[in-house]
C-alpha cells in the first residue's frame, strides 16, 4: 500500500526502514534506544507492520499497532489493536501527517475485524477527533510511611514473602493472569513483555535500584527504591491483588519498610487504601490521569462483548467523524447480555463515538457527559438507566505497566 498526499508518501514499513523509525522515536520521545529495546519493539510490533510517512527518502512520521486482548466488564477478552509509538518529525508537524497515517492504519485495523482500538495518550487533546475516549483512570499517591498507622479494625492476614521477582516469575505471571481476567481495561501480557520486566535493564530503572518483590498467594508487588535529599522512596511499579486479604497483607508489608520514608504507588478510584489507615489523609494524591483510551471499531460487536448490570432498551445514535463506524443502534439487554442491531428508529440517546468509548468500560458516567452537552438523552430516566447498566464492578485499572 502506498498513497501520496501533499508530497508525503504513506506506506507500510520494511525491515530496512527501522533505523530511521528508531531515530524518529528517539527524537520525538527524547529517549535513546538501546539495540535490545529496538529488538523488543520489533518483536512486539512485527518489522513490516508500522505505517510510515516519507518526504523523499526521509522517514518523517510513523505509527504502529500491536495485537492485544483487553478485558471488558464481565471478564471477556476482546481483541484490540494497541496503537503505539506515534511520531511525526518536528520539521513536519501540523500539516496533516498524523491524520494521513491514522487514516491508513485505521483502514487496516477495520479490515482486520477487531472490535476495539486502544492507546495511552501523550497529550489529551489529540485523540478525541479520531473517536478515542479516555476510559480507565488512575491516581498516583504518596504516603509518608513514618506516620502511617493501620486502622485497628484492619486484620493481619500475613502470608507475604520477600522474593526476587525473576525467581518468582511463575507465581507472579499466574496472579497477573487472574487479575487481568477480572479487571476491565487490563490486557493479556505476552511473554516478551514479561521477559523485559524480569530482565529489569539498568537503562530503564530511572536511577532506582533493581526491582524488589513481595509475594502473596493472591497478589504481588514489584517496587524499586530511589534515594533523594529527603530520604528513600519505594516506588511501586506494579501492585496486583485479587483478594481483600492480599491487598491488606501487601500494604502491611510495604508500610513495614522501616528505613523507607515514602511509598509511591498508582491506585484506582475505588482503591480501599485510604481506609486501611487511621489517618486517610496520609494517602496524598499527587496526580490523577487517564490511562487507557478506547476507540470502538465495531459498535455491535463491542457492545455485545461486555455484560451489563441491569436490563436496558435504548436506541443510540453514535456519530463517528473519522471513520464510518457510527449509525443508529438498538441496544437490548436481558440478564446482563446484550443484543445490538442497526435500526432506523428515532434515537433516545445521541453521542459521539469517543463518548461511547469513555462509557464502555464503566468508569465514566453518561449523566456527566450530558451535563457537559456531550451526550443528549430524551429524558433523565434514560441517563439513569444507561449509568446503571454500563457501570462495572471494578471501575478502572492500569495498562501494561511499562
Ligand atoms: C498513542 C501514542 O503513541 S501517544 C504519542 C504521540 N506522539 C507524541 O506525542 C510525540 C510528539 N508529537 C508528535 O510526534 C506530533 O506532534 C503528533 C503525532 C502528536 C501530531 O502529528 P501532526 O502530524 O502534527 O498532526 P496532524 O497535523 O495530522 O494533526 C491532526 C489533528 O490533530 C490536531 N493536533 C495535532 N497535535 C495536537 C496536539 N498536540 N494537541 C491538540 N491537537 C493536536 C491537529 O490540530 C489536527 O486537527 P484537525 O485534523 O481536526 O484539524
How would you concisely characterize the structure shown here?
With 402 residues, this protein is α+β, with helices and mostly antiparallel strands. The protein has 11 helices and 20 strands.
Question: What is the element layout, followed by pairings?
Answer:
Blueprint: E1 2-5, E2 8-12, H1 18-29, H2 35-45, E3 51-55, E4 58-71, E5 77-88, H3 97-112, E6 116-119, E7 133-134, E8 137-144, E9 161-163, H4 169-181, H5 191-199, E10 212-216, E11 219-228, E12 231-241, H6 244-255, E13 262-267, H7 273-276, E14 284-290, E15 293-296, H8 299-305, E16 312-319, E17 327-334, E18 337-342, E19 349-352, H9 353-360, H10 366-371, E20 375-377, H11 380-390
Parallel strand pairs: 5-6, 12-13, 16-19
Antiparallel strand pairs: 1-2, 2-3, 3-4, 4-5, 6-15, 7-15, 8-13, 8-14, 9-10, 10-11, 11-12, 16-17, 17-18, 19-20
Acetyl coenzyme *A (ACO) is lined by residues 28, 83-88, 93-99, 119, 121-123, 125-126, 129.
Polypeptide structure, described:
- This protein is an alpha+beta fold.
- It folds into three domains: 2-114, Aminopeptidase (3-Layer(aba) Sandwich), CATH 3.40.630.30; 137-290, 3-Layer(aba) Sandwich (Aminopeptidase), CATH 3.40.630.30; 293-390, Nonspecific Lipid-transfer Protein, Chain A (2-Layer Sandwich).
- It has eleven helices and 20 strands.
- It has helices at 18-29, 35-45, 97-112, 169-181, 191-199, 244-255, 273-276, 299-305, 353-360, 366-371, 380-390; strands at residues 2-5, 8-12, 51-55, 58-71, 77-88, 116-119, 133-134, 137-144, 161-163, 212-216, 219-228, 231-241, 262-267, 284-290, 293-296, 312-319, 327-334, 337-342, 349-352, 375-377.
- An eight-stranded mixed sheet has the order 1-2-3-4-5-6-15-7, with helices on both faces. It has a seven-stranded mixed sheet with strand order 9-10-11-12-13-8-14, with helices on both faces.
- A hairpin with a 5-residue loop joins strand 4 and strand 5.
- The structure holds acetyl coenzyme *A.
- Acetyl coenzyme *A is lined by residues 28, 83-88, 93-99, 119, 121-123, 125-126, 129.
- Residues 28, 83-88, 93-99, 119, 121-123, 125-126, 129 line the site of acetyl coenzyme *A (ACO).
- Homohexamer; trimer of dimers.
- GO terms for molecular function: aminoglycoside N-acetyltransferase activity.
- The active site is at 127 (proton donor), 402 (proton acceptor).
Amino acid at each position: 500500500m502506498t498513497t501520496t498526499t501533499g508530497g508525503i508518501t504513506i506506506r507500510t514499513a520494511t525491515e530496512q526502514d527501522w533505523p530511521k523509525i528508531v531515530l524518529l522515536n528517539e527524537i520525538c520521545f527524547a529517549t535513546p534506544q538501546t539495540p535490545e529495546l529496538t529488538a523488543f519493539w520489533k518483536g512486539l510490533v512485527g518489522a513490516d507492520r508500522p505505517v510510515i510517512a516519507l518526504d523523499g527518502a526521509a522517514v518523517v512520521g510513523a505509527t504502529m499497532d500491536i495485537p492485544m486482548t483487553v478485558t471488558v466488564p464481565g471478564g471477556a477478552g476482546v481483541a484490540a489493536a494497541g496503537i503505539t509509538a506515534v511520531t511525526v518529525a518536528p520539521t513536519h508537524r501540523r500539516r496533516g501527517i498524523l491524520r494521513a497515517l491514522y487514516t491508513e492504519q485505521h483502514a487496516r485495523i477495520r479490515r482486520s475485524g477487531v472490535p476495539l482500538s486502544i492507546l495511552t495518550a501523550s497529550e489529551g487533546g489529540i485523540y478525541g477527533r479520531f473517536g478515542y475516549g479516555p476510559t480507565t483512570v488512575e491516581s498516583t499517591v504518596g504516603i509518608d510511611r513514618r506516620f502511617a498507622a493501620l486502622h485497628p479494625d484492619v486484620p493481619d492476614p500475613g502470608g507475604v514473602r520477600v522474593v526476587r521477582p525473576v525467581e518468582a516469575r511463575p507465581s507472579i505471571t499466574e496472579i497477573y493472569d487472574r487479575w487481568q481476567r477480572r479487571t476491565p481495561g487490563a490486557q493479556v501480557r505476552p511473554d516478551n513483555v514479561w521477559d523485559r520486566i524480569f530482565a529489569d535493564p539498568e537503562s530503564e530503572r530511572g536511577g532506582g535500584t533493581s526491582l524488589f518483590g513481595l509475594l502473596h498467594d493472591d497478589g504481588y508487588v514489584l517496587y524499586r527504591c530511589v534515594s533523594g535529599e529527603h530520604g528513600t522512596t519505594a516506588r511501586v511499579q506494579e501492585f496486583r491483588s485479587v483478594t481483600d486479604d492480599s491487598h491488606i497483607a501487601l500494604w502491611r508489608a510495604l508500610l513495614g519498610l522501616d528505613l523507607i520514608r515514602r511509598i509511591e504507588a498508582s491506585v484506582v478510584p475505588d482503591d480501599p487504601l485510604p481506609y486501611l489507615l487511621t489517618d486517610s489523609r496520609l494517602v496524598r494524591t499527587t496526580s490523577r490521569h487517564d490511562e487507557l483510551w478506547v476507540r470502538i471499531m465495531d459498535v455491535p460487536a463491542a457492545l455485545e462483548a461486555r455484560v451489563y448490570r441491569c436490563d436496558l432498551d435504548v436506541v443510540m445514535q453514535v456519530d463517528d467523524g473519522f471513520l464510518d463506524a457510527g449509525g443508529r443502534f438498538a441496544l437490548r439487554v436481558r440478564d446482563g447480555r446484550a443484543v445490538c442491531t442497526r435500526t432506523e428508529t428515532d434515537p433516545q440517546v445521541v453521542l459521539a463515538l469517543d463518548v461511547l468509548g469513555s462509557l464502555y468500560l464503566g468508569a465514566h458516567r453518561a449523566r456527566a457527559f450530558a451535563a457537559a452537552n456531550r451526550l443528549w438523552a430524551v429524558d433523565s430516566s434514560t441517563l439513569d438507566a444507561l449509568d446503571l447498566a454500563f457501570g462495572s464492578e471494578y471501575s478502572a485499572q492500569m495498562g501494561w505497566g511499562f
